[in-house]
Structure formats: structure tokens, C-alpha cells
Design goal:
Elements lengths: L1 H4 L2 H19 L6 H21 L11 H25 L3 E5 L4 H35 L1 H15 L8 H22 L2 H17 L13 E5 L3 H4 L9 H21 L11
Antiparallel strand pairs: 1-2
Helix pairs in contact: 2-3, 2-5, 3-5, 4-8, 4-10, 5-6, 5-8, 6-7, 7-8, 7-10
């Protein structure tokens, strides 16, 4: 049983159950509860990796965490603002002030999106990608986790097969490439956080969920360009932008040795 538990599938399942349980109990809580849940999820992740997988966890090291999060945050913000600017300039998007309150909207957005970005990255990149990478190598791990990431969003409002494919490419592949490049959860969570937070503050549906943001969005034109009711993530524009960023990150990962072949030896 110990051998099974310490195998990649064993610690993957254990970690997903632990982190997933914490996330499920705290993700929609009031006030700082989602952020506290994310902190608890990091602790669970570290325990599983140390005690079950028997491996160090440099990916959640506090040393340089702020720098990595800021770098990832800058990339995530640019990833969202470029498509939004293009769609706004060419008449696809228009915004009006929603008057939901500046500080309350900011507080809620930060708490919810910080909690969600950290726990999702622990699950998909920290646990799933690294376990599958140990079994079949980095490339297969990115493909598999990207597909699962897209499928996981099929239950969202306004979701379609196209939106799932778009999420798989612009989120799954992009965030997977980000992890292979930096090997750091804080970097990937920074990308994820500013991406979702910017959408929410602008009033853009986040994966089909329409938030209370600073603005109200009016979309004009075909859903293939604007994303329709699912939001910007179902637009072809961020898919192309995200794919370009992912290719750039994968090239850097390859140069730094971040793309690994299969190394599983039976543990």
C-alpha cells in the first residue's frame, strides 16, 4: 500500500482529494475565506508532496514568491488587456460604469480570484501535471491536463464544445507552458489571478459566470469574436494571443531544461 501511495497516481489522487476538499469548502465563502482556503490548500499540498510523494517542493518556496507572482501577474494582465483593447477599438466591446462600489468590488474580486487561482494551479499544474510528467513526460502532461482543464469548464453557463477547446488552448496550454518555464506555482497563479481578476473588474463573464464588476459589458458582433455569453475566453482573439505566448514560454522552457522526458521508475 505504501508503494502504491507513493506512486505518481497515488500522490496525485491523495493530493486532489485533499486540495479539492479544502477548495470546495472555502471557494465561495464570505470575506477572506477563499484566501484562507488557498493558504490551507498550499499546506495540504506541501504535506502530500513531503509525506506521500517523498519529494521537495521548490515550486511553492517562499523565497522569490513575490517576484514570481508579480512577473506572472504582468503576463496575465497583458494577456487579457491586449484582446480587450483590440475588441474595444474595433467595436466588439463597449463598457459603462456599473456603480457597484469601487472598494467592495475590488475586495471581493481579489479574495475570490486569489483563492481560486492558487487552488486550481495546485490541482492542475502542481499535482496533475507533475504526476503525469513523471509518467509520460512534459509534453504529454501538458496535453492531458489541458484537455481536462477544458472539460472541467463544460459545466459552466453558456459553455460549448468550442469554449472548452478555447479554454484548453488559452488556459491549459498557456498555464502548462508557464509552469514548465518557471517551475513555480506562484508564477502560474499570478498569471491566472490577474487574468480572471481583470475580467471580473471589467464586468466580462469569467468562464460563463457574469460577475459584479466595476463596469457593465456590452458585446457586439459574432460570438466567435466576442465570446458571447461565455465571455472573452470563448473568443478566437485570446486563443491566438494565448497560443503565441505559450509557444514563447515553451521555447524558453526547452532552453532551460524545463521540458522533461518520461522518468518514471516505478515509485
Amino acid at each position: 500500500m505504501s508503494r502504491i501511495a507513493r506512486s505518481p497516481i497515488g500522490w496525485l489522487v491523495t493530493g486532489v482529494v485533499g486540495v479539492g476538499l479544502v477548495s470546495g469548502l472555502t471557494a465561495t465563502g464570505p470575506g477572506p475565506v477563499p484566501l484562507l482556503g488557498a493558504a490551507a490548500a498550499v499546506a495540504v499540498y506541501g504535506w502530500v508532496m513531503h509525506r506521500i510523494a517523498g519529494r521537495p517542493v521548490p515550486e511553492i518556496s517562499r523565497g522569490g514568491a513575490g517576484r514570481e507572482a508579480l512577473l506572472g501577474g504582468g503576463i496575465g494582465l497583458g494577456f487579457i488587456l491586449v484582446p480587450v483593447l483590440l475588441l474595444t477599438v474595433f467595436g466588439g466591446y463597449s463598457f459603462s460604469w456599473a456603480d457597484h462600489g469601487f472598494v467592495p468590488v475590488l475586495w471581493t474580486t481579489v479574495m475570490v480570484q486569489l483563492g481560486g487561482s492558487v487552488t486550481e494551479e495546485l490541482l492542475f499544474r502542481g499535482l496533475a501535471l507533475q504526476a503525469l510528467e513523471q509518467l509520460w513526460g512534459s509534453r504529454a502532461a501538458v496535453v492531458i491536463t489541458s484537455l481536462f482543464f477544458g472539460v472541467a469548464h463544460l459545466g459552466a453557463a453558456e459553455a460549448t464544445l468550442w469554449s472548452a477547446l478555447a479554454i484548453a488552448v488559452e488556459a491549459g496550454v498557456l498555464l502548462g507552458a508557464a509552469f514548465l518555464w518557471r517551475r513555480n506555482i506562484w508564477f502560474v497563479a499570478g498569471v491566472h489571478f490577474t487574468w480572471n481578476a481583470a475580467e471580473q473588474l471589467l464586468g466580462i463573464p469569467v468562464s460563463g459566470h457574469t460577475p459584479e464588476g466595476w463596469f457593465t459589458l456590452d458585446a457586439h458582433g459574432p460570438a466567435f469574436l466576442t465570446g458571447g455569453g461565455f465571455g472573452l475566453e470563448a473568443s478566437i482573439v485570446p486563443v491566438l494571443v494565448g497560443a503565441a505566448i505559450a509557444v514563447w514560454m515553451l521555447r524558453r522552457a526547452r532552453r532551460s531544461g524545463g521540458i522533461k522526458p518520461r522518468t518514471h521508475t516505478g515509485r
